[in-house]
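dumping this here before i forget
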Amino acid sequence: MRRIGIFLLFFIILLSSNPVLAQRGKGGTKNKSKGHHIAIKIDGAQDSIIYLAIHYREKLMLRDSARNDGRSAFLFKGDNPYEEGLYTLVSQDRKPYLNFIIDGGQEFTYFIDTLGDVRNFSVKNSPQNEEMLRFQRKTVQAQMQVREYQEKINEYKETNEDSLEFYNQKVRDINSEMEQFITELIEKNPNFLFSKLQKSYRQIEIPDPPVRDDGTIDSNFQAVYYRTHYWDNFDLTDDRFIYLPSLERAMNEYFNQILWLHEPDTINHYVDMVIQKTEEDSVMYRYFVERLSYIFETSKIIGHDAVFVHIANENQLKGKCYWIDEELLGKYERRVKGLEPTLIGKIAPEIIMPDTSFTTDFNQWHSSYNMKKPYVILWFYDPACHTCKTESEHLRAVYDSLEAIGQRNFDVYAIGSDPDKERLKKYVKEKNYPWLNVGGNSANIDYIAAYNIIGNPTMFIIDNKTHKIILNKRIEMSAIPTFLEQHERIEQLKQERMEKQ
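structure:
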């Protein structure tokens, strides 16, 4: 019989490598136990040592180890309590023996075997693990029954509709029975960490959309309801959730799937909503702020830098993050200061620089605001940069192909960063780019600072009518036409929505 529980592909790494685990900040769960004394008896165990690992995100993190006393018994004993959470007992050859809860009472004994048959397991002096074991046994029983009925379903699916429906109903009955069992388990001990874990795995029930007075139905109601109530089954005031696998699953689904492609303002709204469900100064608050800051700062999705800036402005830069020292706070301040002026929707700083294409003395200056097409691509490049050269040729291909069919709707304002005027001028002449080229070390502004240019090549796309930034990172050149089409479609939908209001 295979052991029942939560099985992850795990990597055992040192506990101290994670600051959240190594340092419990304010608001951490207070253990009732002054230390820990956990005995494990494993019938048939040949291990000379076993490992205790705590669940954190998608990993199992090494917490402790214990030696065989010669009678297949292992003792985890210490003066300090363990973090409360879901743990896995791991064999000497890195295979999981058992999933169990360590809570406030950290003096108990667990009896298991090497076969993993939970029907033969038992635990003393741990009511929470007794409940978890009862759930595991019930799950084993249900799985055995479902397997039996599934064989009948396969047997009758093409020969006997009545028998097929009979066994399908049997499976549905088992599912209903398990749902009721879990409901009773949660209601019986709502503060048990295992109860909270099971509750967090439950799907949110979404009501039917209401009918408006004019008889129409709000097509967005259910999606908004789901985003708003997604975390209802999670107790985000309980720091122990950090050490439960359901939190990472939910984080990935909610922020990397459900919200991932929404506009920054929408994402900001729900990011604030979730963070506000935690208690300020708690470990859970720190976990969400740090994770979400990292997710959106490093995202390659257009507009996600605005989410990072919002998180930092509302948390790190408001003095809410007790764990941040002055040096780190300064880094956040500089990062936000660099990103904020060039976020999508901001007015692009005007650049006025001398021409490199048609004059010999750089006397003719051009403004990035004084272009003719609906959109302007600001193309920052370095003539000595191999990637710049390659991408410039890709841009030329898109430019020329659209020009040939009369559909080019953008101009290119290319800024060469080489301070050697003659060398830059020679490069531009050799390449014979079909767009406006400017450069040198003279300009109306420090454009490197204004556009937060960290390296070349860098690209922005500007709406030439409003001078607003609509793209602030480089994309594949071949994707530019599609991007502009999608932008116009989105703007049209926004306008239609406003007109209906």
